[in-house]
Amino acid sequence: MTALDKAGLAPTPPLRERLQILMRTRPELVLAPVLLVVIIFVWEYGVVLFDVPNYILPPPSAVVVALWRGLDAGLFDRGGYWLHAWVTVAEVLLGFVIGSGVGLILGTVISQFRILDATLRIYLIAIQSLPKIALAPIIVLWFGFGLTSKVVIICLLTFFPLLVNSMAGFKAVDPERLELMRALGANPWQMFWKVRLPSAMPYIFAGLDMAAVFAVVGAVVGEFVGAQRGLGTLILSMNAQMDTAGTFSVFIVLALVGVVIHKVLRIVERRVLFWSGDGMRMIGS
Amino acid sequence: MNGEAGGRASVSALRSTGAVRATPAAVIDVCHVEKVFITVRNERIHALHDISLSVGEREFVTIVGPSGCGKSTLLKTIAGLLRASAGSVWVAGTEVAAPRKDIGIVFQNPILLPWRTVMENVLLPAEVQGIPLAKARARARDLLAMVGLADFENKYPMELSGGMQQRAAISRALLSDPKILLMDEPFGALDAMTREQMNLDLQRIWRESGKTVVLITHSIPEAVFLGDRVIVMTPRPGRITRVVEVEIARPRSIEVMGEPPFGRLTSDIRKLLYGLGASKTMPAGGIA
Lengths: 285, 288
What we know:
The complex is a heterodimer of chains A (285) and B (288).
Chain A (H helix, E strand, L loop, with lengths): L1 H8 L5 H11 L1 H23 L10 H13 L8 H32 L1 H15 L7 H8 L3 H25 L3 H9 L4 H38 L5 H10 L3 H29 L13
Helix pairs in contact in A: 2-3, 4-12, 5-8, 5-10, 5-11, 6-8, 7-8, 8-10, 9-10, 10-11, 10-12, 11-12
Chain B lengths: L8 H9 L8 E13 L5 E13 L3 E5 L6 H9 L6 E6 L2 E2 L7 E4 L11 H5 L1 H6 L3 H14 L15 H13 L5 E5 L7 H18 L2 E6 L2 H7 L2 E6 L4 E7 L14 H14 L15
Parallel strand pairs in B: 3-8, 3-9, 6-7, 7-8
Antiparallel strand pairs in B: 1-2, 1-4, 4-5, 9-10
Helix pairs in contact in B: 5-6, 8-9
């Protein structure tokens, strides 16, 4: 009776009911935000309760305050975040585009010639597994404290995922598709554009996802080693001043940069790879 | 041209059943083809041994045999995808050296490109061969209507069932209006019901389009149902053991499969393939 009355009076069910429906159908939509709130709550009051000093672990509220302070500064203020974020983003974008672009082109060219592929493969895979980030100090020594050294470091890091992944992608092209093209009398050019390249796309995008993560890592490490501007330098100087809340807030900015790049890639990927099953796309790798 | 060299057992078997015959209207002529593969471990595999076969215009020939009997190799040799180690293949009077436009192929898998719509997939041969797209598009529409996919031209392959995908592949193979349609176990991956329906449809498409069809299958009923002649192949080395004429009136309906002539033919072929049949007493195997 009452349920009927309610339904008659209110066109949309009340919040309680909607929550119950949501809990039954998509519980993660409720549980994930709740978890976040719980973590922040425990962090905030845990720090107070156990009397943790701010320079060891600041409460979230202090991080938010620091973040606000950094963002509230002028665009060209050396103490604010905008200038440094801009420098880091420029490094990341330049390095990512150049490094992954060259990697993709080289991987593509190598894949089209069997001898080249067979000869170079072992070396390239060996280099792929080296910790190239360790070369950052040398690269800063060679290219200076400016933008160039960071871009070179990022190029080095983003080059190999694209090189190796595009080579793997071209190698994995379904031979049946190639036989079909051969039966139709296709020339090598047509085989490449109509079958090989589209077939390799899932691998290429997996490489781009990886390269995007490496690009941000490369920028920060490059700035740690030697730089005058950038979010990495900001973290170093804040750390030296024991401004841990500030460090966390810069970390949030860096995370946002990474998330935005990842999202943009995802949107492009969804357009290009609409035909590829979800299982083929790697999550976050 | 049509194989007079005798001596070998398989060749005399062919002669006795009339596989090698001088047909004036022959569209495909396979003359004493041998194919030997060398594997990575340097072993020799004798895939085809002294294969001779001619297929007349508008004829429907089916090839049946167990796996490894070289039937796919034979089809690929006719298509120009493989070169014979010895012997020659002639299509429409010229020797086959490479894939050609007057041969359409349907493979076991539909091999549709997943990033293209059905229409774009059917148009692939036109793009590759430089046929004007406007004209090809009209033809593609007709073909898709013929195979029952008229409303699916803008769908993507993943939205289609296996049978529908194979229909699209058949349309693609027919786009450049080839004289000959070669089919390599085209319905092998389909369930039995869909397969029977596809057999009926293929018979209709063949009659409507007037193509010469060579179809490979490992299903004996399918071979008998579709073929004017059934070529029976056996492995090690792959050779033609027998050619069986199927004298069942067209168009054949599914009910044909339950009738005595059909049963006789299938059981004879089965005996041949299992090595049980006395090769001299083949009651239903027609002699040309």
